[in-house]
Design a protein that fits this description.
By secondary structure, this protein is an alpha/beta fold. The chain has two domains: about 180 residues, FAD/NAD(P)-binding domain (3-Layer(bba) Sandwich); about 140 residues, D-Amino Acid Oxidase, Chain A, domain 2, CATH 3.30.9.10. The protein contains nine helices and 20 strands. The strands form four sheets. Strands 6-7-5-15-16-17-14-18 form an eight-stranded mixed beta sheet, sandwiched between helices. A six-stranded mixed beta sheet has the order 9-3-2-13-20-19. The protein has a four-stranded mixed beta sheet with strand order 1-12-11-10, with no helix packed on it. The longest helix has 21 residues. The protein is globular, with a radius of gyration of 21 Å. It starts with a strand and ends with a helix.
């Protein structure tokens, strides 16, 4: 039997969050191993569109979104590779007066956080985004004119290359089967590549976070929910800002730098659980929904479809910090903001791990918050209601 390999930190999960955290810890002089069951970025990190928006429904998450954009703006310089950072803009299209009033109520908070968001009426919404002409008439929109899109593959490649060049032990095709616990603390993991020992084990597995936590005897409320998307053929640019809407059901679309339309929608009866299978139901539902919003897109041909998962928590906040098992750290719970917040959260988590200083942006993300609410459950019904609960938490 081979001898265990020893490190300062072992990170389970080689997606954006795991690689970004490893890169910061490596720069702090730590010996880090990243264990990935397939290849780097093969989970949620390669199954998204890299939106980095500042407009959020709570002050804390808005501040985090602004910090996330600043982090992404300097990533190419930090990592030495182009991440295809693009200030495309972001438009939250509203289809009911009730939605407009909810966003109007957010304006004082957005101004206080210096989020450059603007509430548009119907006329200005259509003038800003003419592709919506002829579709369901919007009641208005919230526009983030400087919000960002990055290319997920470019970001993952940049982090992967920087980690490997800096000496991070990236072990791909490596499945974790057990978390070792000695004298009441995590001390390493057992894998298909042997044992990896470390005084700190980090769970950065996204949609698998509850399963990996269970290996350590730690119970968490994280639940994976499937999210599907498709991409069309490339055409002449017809829009810049990415669009999201939540009525009558959640959907979104944007055009890439190559001219493709990327679009997705959800269904409220999506069963919980890990699922990477793309479905014809999603293709039909999303296509019909997008055409209702922007009829001129009806002629575009879909060329590819895929599915990923959101790692969701009951309060829609990430989980960052040491769990109730000493040495076992949680770094998960993206709630659909994985590419948005991953790089900045990695920087702040590394600082917490190395210095013990918890940045104010991490307040409320402690793993222990669910210990006092063992019955907390993830719900995916009404989007706004979920964030109302988050504000009350």
């Amino acid at each position: 039997m081979s001898q265990p390999q020893s490190f300062d930190m072992v990170i389970v999960g080689g997606g954006l969050w795991g690689l970004a955290l490893a890169w910061h810890l490596m720069r702090d002089g730590k010996r880090v191993a990243v264990l990935e069951q397939r290849h780097a970025g093969s989970g949620a990190s390669c199954r998204n569109v890299g939106r980095v928006r500042s407009i959020q429904l709570t002050q804390q998450l808005t501040l985090l979104g602004i910090a996330a954009q600043r982090k992404h703006a300097r990533l190419s310089r930090e990592l030495g590779r182009n991440t295809l950072f693009w200030r495309a803009g972001y438009m939250w299209v509203l289809y009911a007066d009730e939605e407009v009033e909810r966003f109007r109520a957010l304006l004082p908070m957005l101004r206080e956080t210096r989020c450059p968001a603007r509430l548009l009426d119907t006329r200005r919404t259509l003038a800003t985004m003419p592709i919506l002409e002829g579709g369901e008439r919007p009641a208005g929109a919230m526009l983030g004119p400087r919000d960002v899109i990055v290319h997920h593959d470019a970001v993952i490649y940049a982090y992967r290359a920087a980690c490997v060049a800096g000496g991070v032990a990236l072990v791909e095709q490596c499945c974790v089967s057990a978390v070792h616990v000695t004298a009441g603390r995590a001390t390493g993991v057992e894998t298909t590549h042997g044992r990896f020992d470390a005084p700190i084990v980090v769970n950065a597995t996204g949609g698998w976070s509850s399963e990996v936590s269970a290996m350590a005897g730690v119970t968490v409320p994280n639940v994976a929910y499937r999210r599907e998307a498709f991409v069309t053929e490339s055409v002449k640019p017809f829009m810049s800002a990415a669009i999201t809407f939540y009525r009558p059901t959640e959907g979104w679309f944007n055009q890439t730098l190559r001219g493709e339309l990327v679009a997705g929608s959800i269904t409220e009866d999506e069963p919980e659980g890990f699922n990477h299978a793309a479905s014809p139901d999603s293709l039909e539902r999303t296509g019909a929904l997008i055409v209702r919003k922007a009829p001129r897109l009806a002629g575009l041909r879909v060329v590819r479809q895929w599915a990923g998962v959101y790692d969701m928590t009951p309060d829609r906040k990430p989980v960052v910090g040491e769990s109730n098992l000493p040495g076992f750290w949680q770094f998960n719970g993206c709630n659909g903001r994985g590419f948005n917040a991953g790089p900045i959260l990695a920087e702040l988590c590394a600082k917490l791990m190395v210095t013990g200083a918890r940045d104010s942006l991490l307040e409320g993300f402690e793993p222990g918050r669910f210990d006092a609410a063992p019955g907390a459950k993830v719900t995916i019904g009404d989007y706004y209601a979920g964030y109302t609960k988050a504000r009350a938490a």
